[in-house]
Amino acid sequence: MELSPVEQVTRELKLRAYSVKTIKAYSSCLRGYIDYCGGDIRRFNPEKVRSFFMEKHTAGLAPQTINLYLNAIKFYYRNIIEYKGPIGIRFAKRSRRLPVVLSRDEIKKMIGLTKYGQHKLLLALSYGAGLRVSEVIKLKYSDIDFPSKLILVREGKGKKDRLVLLPQNLIAYIQQHTHKGSYLFMGATWEEHLCARSAQYIFKNAAKRAGIRDDASFHSLRHSFATHMLEDGVDIRFIQDLMGHRDIRTTQIYTSVMKSSLVRITSPLDRIRIAD
Fold first, then answer.
1. How many distinct structural domains can be found in the chain?
2. Residue among 154, 157, 204, 209 flagged as catalytic
């Protein structure tokens, strides 16, 4: 029995060891394109592709979402159908919004107002090591090298392992209050880790108690880590490695939100004496 386009893409992505999240996203986007085309998409139709993306633009979808659709459709035609001709659609230009960065006082207040120990550790470790939510929830006790004060992040974004910092002031708590041979942040059972949605809920509650702006998210802890490291004079190349950024330009965006550096800069107008 012949596999459907979605099944073909799913199988190929699994063979190439793509993440579960990416597989779900590509499958969903391809289903949307199939529905738009009325079922059969095996023959590449440039006009149909162009009108599909025009509809997405008109609907006001974010550039990141449009690019995800394009990646999924390109993957199908390039890797399943093996279409060699031009696709004819360029990636949408992504907006350059500055990341939401919390101040050190806000971080301190948020962690301090969190009473439950595991929740406090989740927030503190995510900030202190610059971790994504998908990375921190999967950490195991065995991933931590206490003598070297390092944590091994296994299969982070892009399926890459990397080493990150273990904050000194979290060592004692981790050793005394987490279970060896298990996840640091357990879910419903010992064999399961905390889910991302629960971690984000913990952050939102903590942020609300601390009176932190509504647009802050769990990822703001990671943004704050990078920005505060830059403010402390850490070389941007080291920060790039700690964050797991493939491109240094991704790390450089944090130079735009270094408030401590900006406040030390004097406007040239302030050096000119203007008569009253």
1. 2
2. 157
Is residue 205 situated within a structural domain?
Answer: yes
The yes-or-no answer on residue 245 being catalytic is yes
- Give the gyration radius of the chain's Cα atoms: 23
CATH number at residue 140: 1.10.443.10
How far apart are the C-alpha atoms of 24 and 19, rounded to whole Å? 9
Selecting among 56, 109, 193, 222, the annotated active-site residue is 222
Instruction: Please report, for the domain that includes residue 71, its CATH number.
Output: 1.10.150.130
**Ramachandran area for residue 33 (φ above 0: left; ψ -120 to 50: alpha; else beta):** alpha
Of 133, 169, 181, the closest CA to residue 153 belongs to 133
pLDDT in tens, 165-189: 999 999 998 998 888 878 999 888 7
Instruction: Place 49 in a pLDDT band, splitting at 50, 70 and 90.
Output: very high
